[in-house]
Structures are given as structure tokens and as C-alpha cells.
Amino acid sequence: MKIIWKRGFVRLVLVAGILWMLLILAVLSFHVWSCQSSSVFFSVICNKESKVYNFLNTWGFVPQQHRCPIPVIGNPERIVIPEGRTRDQIVKNISYVMEDEDGSQSSPLFGGHQSWKQREKSFNLSSSMKVHCGFMHNGGADMDLVDIEYVKKCRFVVASGIFDGYDVPHQPSNISDRSRKLFCFLMVVDEISLDFIKENVTVREDHNRGRWVGIWRLILLKHSPYDEPRRNGKVPKILTHRLFPQAQYSIWIDGKMELLVDPLQILERYLWRGKNTFAIAQHKHHRSIYEEADANKRRKRYARPLIDLHMKIYYYEGMESWSPKKSSVSDVPEGAIIIREHTAMSNLFSCLWFNEVNLFTPRDQLSFGYVVYRLGGAFRFFMFPNCEYNSLFVLHPHTREHSSKVEWVKSISEFKGNGSSMKESRGGLGLWTPYPGDLSSVVLPKVARTSKAG
């Protein structure tokens, strides 16, 4: 009797599993067919900004396209630019720590010596806040006076960066005359990259000693703040509002990208239409930072033991793996494009995000979702589909591989010894400072590798 019951139960489970798979296939087929229909009812399902679409996408029922059409306004001349600035409801004023309070240190650091207590306090929101945000006095990342004067006039910015000669500037396409007059196109470079660019493309110098490659104004950052080029590149990427303090709007794109869409169309689509102040693309493969960390280790994007330590700190501090119960569609962004209005809250988020990159690993995709989690829903942002991200750009390969030795380290023993060339001396110091909690019992969540490409 028991054997018959068990067999019946197994059959019931198999039938239920088959029915569930058929239901998923039916939903996928229905979604694909309905999105080709002109029906108003079906347009709600296919609208990427609708609640129905977001529900289906969250549960994995939406087929993931590589590229998809972006619903931009066709003529940039017709776009109405909002007047004034978006008002923040929580954080209204933000100031920055400029002097390192740790007097025992011999040389200033760009990110300062932020203590664990200061880090914890920075996540407690109030109307007026003072936080670490890079650019410590004498900490590096200095601009020429001619460039400082030039960027003072820049209210609308398209920014990019090239460090350690990994790329050459790629000229954007489809830029309207209106955007050419309205936007400053600023390419931030270090000395190595400036020399590399001069050797490989034509650099024009204007009568004010400004350097240009096509539409891009080259902005030299002298005295690189970090040992590792990948971490240096996070300075203009995340702290755009500190480099260009007069800017109200900015669009960051990685140096390997060729922009295909007019920047006014981008601001209208991703900020103004939905009344957003921060927009970023969803990662194609991963939604959990622990999945992304696993992929970084497999692809040797940074030292494996340091990635593990970074993730153990986050897990100890309550950062759970992503699930559909979370309010955001993903904890992992595609960080090659960041679209911002520089409000106090947006600037605060960028500072806190940068502080995590400064303290831990330079893999900023691992820190983004953690900062969102620590702000407890106070920071609102638009995470748009990855297929739109792929339609914004042409991706060009780097001119060469990254050169950091730290990325290839497999064991903590390789870092031992004072003055080890494997250890960064100016960044990631949170990984070498005693953590005020017991991490010995922390076991990271298991990761299911859903994609070979990821």
C-alpha cells in the first residue's frame, strides 16, 4: 500500500512539474505574440515601465533580448528641459570631509582614512550631512587650472575616462546640433593615457591650451590617487559631481563605448519622463552580488581572497542574495553607463558608493546594491533593461589587457610581507584593517551559475 502511495505521489509531482513548465512556455509565447499585437490591452504587458511587465520580468518570464528599441523622442529639438532642480525630501545639504583626521599617517590619501564608525554613521540620513567623498587635500587627482576654468561652464556633461592607455577616444554618433551646443563632452585621462592618445590619434590644442580629440575635451588628472588603474577609473565615473561641481546633469560612459544616441534623448528617456534623478542599466546575467562576485573570481577580475572577504563583510552586515521580494529588479547594475541629476541625495549615494570602492575592492558592481540596501529605500533610482543598454552603444575592445598584479592573486599568502608589490598601498585599506565583527563563522550563500558568459 505504501509503495503504491509513493508511486502515485511521484507521478503527481512529475505531472505538476510538466504543467509548470508548460505554463512558463505559454506565458513566454503569449508575451512574444502579444508584444507584436497593436492591442491597447497588450501594450500594457509590453510596456517596460508597467507594473505587469516588471512582475513578469522579475519572475523571469520575459525573454532577454540582446538589443531592443529605445522609446526616445525622435527629434531632440522638441525635448523640453525642466526648469530648476529636483527637490530632495530627505537629504537637502551635503558637505565633504576634506582633511584627513588620522594625523598618525605620513601621507594624505585621496579617500582618507575613514574609520568603521565613520562609515556606519554615513548611512544614517539627515537633512544636512558631511561625509567622506574622495578629494582629500593633497591626496592626488589634480586638474590643470585651464581645465578647472573650462568645466565651470558645464551644466550638462557627457563624461568618460581612459586610464593606463587601455583605450582611445571613440567619437559619438547621432549628436544633434542642440546637444553639441548644450553639452560638454569631457574625457578624463591620466598621464599614461594622454601620451598613448597623442601617439595614436590626432590631438588638437586650442588657443587656451585645451586639448581636444574630435568632440572630446581631454581632462588630465595628475598624480593618480591609487596604485591600480582600475580603481583610478572609478574617480571620474562615480565622483562626477566632485570633478565637475557646476554640472546639473551628467551621463557617464566607459571609455571603451561609442555612444549612438543623442544625450538629450537619454536624459528625457531615463530621467525626465519618469521624474528620476538616477538611472543605470540592469546587468545582463546577474541579480545577486554574490553571483557577480563568483563571476569576478572565475574571470580573474580581482584577487579571489579579497573578493571573498569583501562579500563576507556584506553578508555579515545583512546583505541578502537578490530575490523577487526585493523592491529593485536587481542588485547588480551594468556600470558602463550612469545617468544622473546631481541632487543632494544622488550626490550622497555616489559618495557612499565610492567610499565602498575605496575601502574594499574596485569592482563597483559589488558595492552598488549594498549601498542601496543600507539606505533602506530612501534612494530612488531607475534600473532599465539591459537590452536598451546594448542599443545605446557600440562596444570596442580594449587596446590591451589590464596590468594589475592584484587581479591574479589566488591566496592571501601572496600579500604577506611589508611593501609587497601585490598589495595596494592607497586603496582597499578596509580589507587590511581589523573588522569590528567576527567573520570567522560567515558562510557565503551558494551560487548557481546560470550563464557561462557571466
Give structural notes:
With 454 residues, the protein is an alpha/beta fold. Helices cover 35% and strands 15% of the residues. The protein contains 16 helices and 14 strands. Strands 3, 4, 5, 6, 7, 8, 9, 11, 12 and 13 form a 10-stranded mixed beta sheet that branches. Helix 14 (344-359) packs across helix 15 (365-374). The chain is globular. The chain crosses the membrane at residues 12-33. Residues 95-398 form the TOD1/MUCI70 glycosyltransferase-like domain. Pfam families: TOD1_MUCI70. Keywords: Membrane, Transmembrane, Transmembrane helix. This is TOD1/MUCI70 glycosyltransferase-like domain-containing protein.
Uncertain stretches: 27-46
- Rg, rounded, reads 24 Å
Q: What can be said about the biggest beta sheet?
A: 10 strands, mixed
> Proportion of β residues?
5-15%
Topology order in helix (H) and strand (E) letters: HHHEHEEHEHEHEEEHHHEEHEHHEHHEHE
**Mean pLDDT rating:** 88
Helix content, binned percent: 25-40%
Q: Which class do the helix and strand fractions yield?
A: alpha/beta
Question: Overall 3D geometry?
Answer: globular
Number of strands: 14
Give the termini distance in whole angstroms: 49 Å
Number of helices: 16
Features of the shown structure:
single chain, two-stranded parallel ribbon, globular, 16 helices, ten-stranded mixed beta sheet, 454 residues, alpha/beta
Question: What's the layout of helices and strands?
Answer:
Elements: H1 2-34, H2 40-46, H3 51-58, E1 93-97, H4 116-122, E2 128-132, E3 142-143, H5 145-151, E4 156-162, H6 177-182, E5 183-189, H7 191-200, E6 204-205, E7 211-213, E8 216-222, H8 229-232, H9 234-238, H10 240-243, E9 249-253, E10 257-259, H11 263-272, E11 278-282, H12 289-298, H13 304-316, E12 333-341, H14 344-359, H15 365-374, E13 382-384, H16 386-392, E14 393-395
Parallel strand pairs: 1-2, 4-5, 4-9, 5-8, 11-13
Antiparallel strand pairs: 3-8, 6-7, 7-8, 9-12, 10-14, 11-12
